[in-house]
Amino acid sequence: MADDRPIGVFDSGVGGLSVLREIRARLPRESLLYLADSGHVPYGEKTPDFIRARCRAIADFFLERNAKALVVACNTATAAGVAELRECHPELPIVGMEPAVKPAARATRSGVVGVLATTGTLKSARFAALLDRFAVDVRVVTQPCPGLVELVEAGDLDGPRTRALLLSFVEPLLTEGCDTLILGCTHYPFLRPLLERLVPPTVTLVDTGAAVARRLEDVLVAAGLQGEGVATTGFWSSADPQQLQRVLPVLWGAPAPVRRFAG
Q1: Is 88 a catalytic residue?
Q2: Catalytic residue among 55, 74, 145, 178
Q3: pLDDT tens digit sequence for 107-117
């Protein structure tokens, strides 16, 4: 039988919309709930304890709305909180995400991979484990990117400030010989068109949104939770809902009402 309960998807802000787009494209008959925790963005500068508390509050919110599965569409929240979420909710399929170290290590020709990510992701034990597992034969150069998340939150994807800041983060990686760049934050795929203009065409850009959508599909099929109804998408924000509402046409591709999450 079909299970038409919704899937909850959240991020520290609007970045997870890049993952939501991939989920909608791959699973057009699934209803989705999206929560932007923009009142606490960016997670990358917060403590692990704070992020875990936010993950618990948001998971409870989705469960109150009868969610059948949860997608943690944030690298930092996955690193800090997904293990605890799975312990607290063993009955709930939970899909997290992580920087695409494995495909980047396979793609590099120079043997040097660059990572653009938040400070929280780069400091996490989960990221260190990824390097130990998949990057033993390549050199990985990391670059924290403070300020980029806030610019994407504001919908500034190609303005002078965004261009200058992104270039300042990318140039050191290119100088190190990186020919593959990991977009290690869900906000960064929205900067891909600008990034493609800033790097040589020989540089490969890698992110994990499509892989997360595939993993979610596999999980739903394995658990017999596929939806077959008329799909809907609902949006919430812990900041001013109008802020998310303004950028949805650009980042989601269509306008939609946004409700306030007060948790």
Answers
A1: no
A2: 74
A3: 999 999 999 99
